[in-house]
Amino acid sequence: MLSQVIQNALPGIVVANFAIVCGVSILVLGLIGRRTMHEVPSGIQNVAEYFLDWFVKQSRGIDPGVVELVTPFIATLFVIIFVSNLMVIVPFPLLSIPPTAFFSVTLALALTAVVGSWVLNGIHRGVLQAALHLVWPNPIQLVAEVSDVASLSLRLFGNIAGEFLVGLLVLKSAPYGIPIVIHGLGLIPAFIQPLVFTLLTTSFLANAMRHEEKRNRTTEQGKRRFHLSLGRRVRRNLRVSELVTGGEPQ
Questions:
Q1: Helices in the chain by DSSP H: which ranges?
Q2: Domain total for the chain?
Q3: Assigned domain for 238 exists
């Protein structure tokens, strides 16, 4: 397990590691963006375009008009969380502490996702419509937003912290061989968790940005049901009238 000195310095180490993650992410993405793009992609360009295309598809699924607004947001969240998770395989004692293994970091990321969804919704649909989404049609919609923060933060924290603690315990009991296997298996949740986090954030954005569309659709469905009900009522009254009068006109 971690020594007492490291445990006392953990808040500073986590902040420093998260700053390193953000710096590395910006540096790597900047270098990729500065590369000369070829008409027929290959190598790093091919991989970068594949992932970018996936984020664009997720944004286009919300609304084709918000691709440029949403894609950088969800792509940045994915990259930062993914690189944070990979810190656990860094072969240096202090750098191998992943920021996402601590609830304060995952809570901050979840708040960024949810509050960022409000901001993007306000930019796309206006501040008034974005605020209306929080109280209409259900006045306690804000409670659901709070539960979204808890869900995102706890899911990410539980998976990465669990992997980190298992790695520490295995490293203490069997320092050779087995930790490599644990780290190899840990690459799976290291990729899956940012993917799930990004998909859920995209779902929150879709729910907010399609709010007006859903409300209009609900109104139209209500009008249609009313007209159908009114038509059935009129036909029923006509049948009753025919039975009473014997089918003769009044």
A1: 4-8, 10-34, 44-62, 67-86, 103-125, 127-133, 141-173, 178-209, 211-245
A2: 1
A3: no
Q: Is the dihedral of CA 118, 121, 122, 128 positive or negative?
A: negative
Q: Is residue 124 part of a domain?
A: yes
DSSP string, 109-132: HHHHHHHHHHHHHHHHH-HHHHHH
Residue 25 structural domain:
4-209
Report mean pLDDT in 10-residue bins for the chain, 250 residues.
71 90 88 74 77 89 86 92 87 83 93 90 83 74 82 90 80 69 78 92 84 48 54 59 54
Within 8 A by CB and 6+ apart from 35, the residues are 44, 45
In a domain, 29, yes or no: yes
Whether residue 239 is contained in a domain is answered as no
Q: What is the dihedral of CA 145, 147, 150, 155, to 10 degrees?
A: -110
Residue 247 burial class via C-beta count within 10 angstroms: exposed 0-12, middle 13-18, buried 19 and up: exposed
Asked whether 100 and 106 are in contact (CB, 8 A), the reply is yes
Conformation bin of residue 249: beta by default, left when phi > 0, alpha when psi is -120 to 50: beta
